[in-house]
């Protein structure tokens, strides 16, 4: 089984190399390096060195577009959004938000250029992390305002439905959003596949009473799993983040990713929340790991190295204690 860990927050090579050796010694076989817009602008060659150091100790490397355009998951901020305010999403008909629009050709060009840099840096797989539409709650709008009315979306919607785009979330708009995101990811997967690099696509976990509330995301797991060039389908059911019971929530997400991936010959990759709690919640963590293992996934990954104790906003308590327990549960 592939067992991996996410690594972020350090670009000093000798420290990264020592940490990669430590991860390998602890039993990890893969590492995910975040590769943000900031990294692309300022650490491009250094990332290649850090990836090489990871390979030197036998780790397989995934690279993620951390926070890119605020369309992909991750805490990193987006300068692209600040520099391109007229190419971002427009919610509720009139409200611009700090998220690029996946319909926008300029943003698509930017992500392809990022992908080229990720391939050049030596990634084994590109990890397309939780592509999603902006949430209207972040700008104080109601849920039905989740229809992007930017020029690109209006043109694409009119082309597809021969009608002007509603300013609210109708069934047609919901279908349009899923289609745009799915085709956006499929285009990116094909782009890196043409350069000989495989993809992992990580989709938002199903949350909610009916287990289907992944509305801002891709939705159609089968379409992604069946895409040529997708090596692994992934999901990250972080029980504490989503305030869900670990056994049921992680078990259901693991079963869903397993079924969707295996039906199309892809690997099932499950992420575990290894941050944001303290030693008193380790029983919940172990329950979550067991639920993932029992579901029969192919890859178990954890976010992140040293329980993310160096990143204040993740809120891990006594990270040294948590990390030892995380390693014990995940790599044994
Ligand atoms: Zn749009």
Q: Whole-Å distance between the termini? A: 11 Å
β-strand amount: 15-25%
Q: How many beta-strand elements?
A: 10
Total number of distinct structural domains:
1
Total number of helical segments? 11
Which radius of gyration do the C-alpha atoms yield?
A: 19 Å
The CATH topology is given as TIM Barrel
Principal-axes geometry comes out as globular
Task: Extract low-pLDDT stretches.
Answer: none
Secondary-structure element pattern, one letter each: EHEHHEHEEHEHHEHEHEHEH
Explain this structure to me?
Helices cover 41% and strands 17% of the residues. By secondary structure, the chain is of the alpha/beta class. The protein has a single domain (2-77, 108-133, 183-331), classed as TIM Barrel (Alpha-Beta Barrel), CATH 3.20.20. Helix 1 runs parallel beside helix 3, helix 5 packs parallel to helix 7 and helix 9 (246-262) packs parallel to helix 10. The longest helix has 23 residues, at 171-193. The structure holds zinc ion (ZN). Residues 89, 101, 103, 148, 150, 152-153 line the site of zinc ion.
